[in-house]
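Protocol step 4 of 6: structure prediction from sequence.
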Amino acid sequence: MLAAPPRLSPQDLRRPGWLAAHVGIVLLAVAFALLGRWQWDVGHKVAPLTAADLTTWRTAQPVDSVITSDGLNGTQVGQSVTVTGSYDSTRQLLVPGRVLNGKTGYYVLTPLVTGSGDAVVVNRGFLLPTGGAEPAIPAAPAGRITVTGWAAEPESTTGEVNANGITQQDQTAAATEPNEVQYISPPELVNRWPYHLRDGYVTATDTASRAGGLSLIPAPLPPHGTTWDLLNVCYAFQWWLFIVIVGCWYVVYLRRELRPRPLGADEDELGDEDDEEDEDDDELDAAEPARARGAAVAAGSGE
């Protein structure tokens, strides 16, 4: 079968216009690659846990600098804090259904009065039940005391995520006694205690606060490890897919233009264009008598 010369030759691809096209395609691919890498970096974050991070995490900060008037930043849950005040042992509460080291028991909440009408919620520690029944709450230390502990998240009573990104923890038991609460939620505790409370609380780690046989509740580690944002990762793969699409299209296009064509292919294309023009002319010719009759009718009506 006879073939016509290709539209392009290898020499044509070395001309300035085609060289500019090659460079443009490469630059476009590089841009797509960089955009994909940017989305990957946004969606894939690695935070290593260093000795310096642990030292800072375990160095007690004033509670006012961590649990502020705006609440607790979710990234600071577990930060070591210190606060000075006096425990109000007459208003202690139990939080049932909490688990520590595989055992179910209670958290002991006590208001630490820091000033006139102000207090900080302190989780003094974990208490096991007595023979399956609610235990007696150990008295808190009397007098003024400096409490060391870690900043803890306020729990949502609705299970929603608050403005700081802190979510509700799973509960395993409901409050059934007058001195029990199901959630550690300062906005709820203000209805039980006559104090102004910060939106956050302190889990005590000092020995004095845990007097009476209370077990230590360990602090969580600072934010670390690998996090993924699926949306940004998908965007990254989308940009990289564009590189494949553009590259395949360009290669297919060049291969088609460099490949010899069947003889008469250009004539067939030109013939198709002529056929279309002829059809347009036929339509115009067919419409001409109709326009003439319309004009005649219009003239007759005018007479």
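Step 5 (inspection) to follow. The chain has two domains: 8-47+226-261, 51-223.
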